[in-house]
Every structure is written in structure tokens, then in C-alpha cells.
Amino acid sequence: MRVERVLLLEGPREVEVIEECHCEIKLSQCIRVPALRTYYFETPYETVLDVGGCSRSKGAPEGFSCVPTKFDSALLETPNKVDVIQTVSACELKESCYRIPYVEYYYETVQHGDGVKEEKLKEIDVGRCLGGCTTGKRCLLRSPSDLENCYLWSERQSSSCVPQGYESHSFINQHGQIRTILSITSCLCQN
User: Fold this and answer.
1) Considering only 52-56, 61-65, 185-189, which range has the smallest mean pLDDT?
2) Is the pLDDT of residue 156 over 60?
């Protein structure tokens, strides 16, 4: 798979281009697996990075998935600067909808008391919501004496894992403008 950068009206975006497909076996364990990405394809800056991923484990309890839990970063030399690419370093079985750390970097201008302006790199954990939400029937009323016995089932529509809470981070960017970035604090399943 290679990664191409395209410029859209909303700004630059990365698009993953699938070049070939293969079958994957489902592992019985939850482990980190290699995931190679090619950046700056067919340029002098072409680089292949193992960004990692998580195995699709079979036999996981319902509502749990093998998901990334620890991340690392790799520096990627580009025509204009150095990019920081987030990579997966560890995976665990987790409930299907949860927040993970996701760090983004911004230039911040700081005005010191003596009038000197300093440009610094600001690191913000903006977070991401990962996972999916279980579908199917849900028990609304269980027997008090036997929790395995369900009296009333509800049909549940498919839902997605979305941000629930946010926190804002404001700073002055390198152009002297106030910039506000929202970071995700929690996630939930929503129809």
C-alpha cells in the first residue's frame, strides 16, 4: 500500500492506495502485525515504513476487538520538512469503542515578558475513537436470580464509535492568529 498526498479544498489529505491484495489468516492471539506503507512513491524521498496494525483475532469475546493500545512515531524526510508518522507498537483485546492517544504537532508563537517572540513546536494529544459497536440483540431486562436469563430483548441498530467529550486547546500560531484545536476526551457508541 502506498500513501499519496492530495490537496483538497479543506487542505492536504493523505490517501492510501491499495496496490495488491492477499488473504490473511485469522490468528487466535491479539498481536501487532506489520503494515508497510510507501510514502512519496517514485520520488527521491520514497520511503517504506512499517506503521503496524493489529491482528484480526478469532475467538475474541463478543464486544471485544484486537486494537492498537501503544503508539510510537517515525520521522519521515520530505521535500519541505520532516513529517512525524504515528506507528502502532502494541495491541490488546479491548472493548469495541474506546479513545486512543493521537498526537498532532503545531507551531506556536510565544511572547516573552522581555518582548522576544519564540516559535515552538506544540504537541497536542487530540485523540481518536477506535473500534466498532456491537450490533444485534441487547438484553433490556434480566432475571435477578440468574443473569444468564434474559426476559426482554431489544433489536439494536448498527452504531458507530464517535467522540463524546471534547477539550479545547488555544494558542497563537506562527502567523499571529489564535488557533483553537479540539481534542477528544471520551468516545461512545451512537446510532
Assistant:
1) 61-65
2) no
User: Is 1-95's fold the same as 96-191's?
Assistant: yes
CATH code for the domain defined by 96-191: 2.10.90
The one-letter amino acid code at 129 reads C
2 Cβ contact partners less than 8 Å away, ≥ 6 residues apart:
16, 17, 19, 37, 38, 39, 41
CATH 2.60.120 fits 1-95, yes or no: no
Quick check: 182 and 165 in contact, CB under 8 A? no
36-39 and 2-8: which strand pairing? parallel
Neighbours of 123 (CB within 10 A): 11
In this structure, the dihedral spanned by the alpha carbons of residues 78, 79, 80 and 83, taken in order and rounded to 10 degrees, is -10
φ, ψ for residue 15, nearest 5 deg: -120, 130
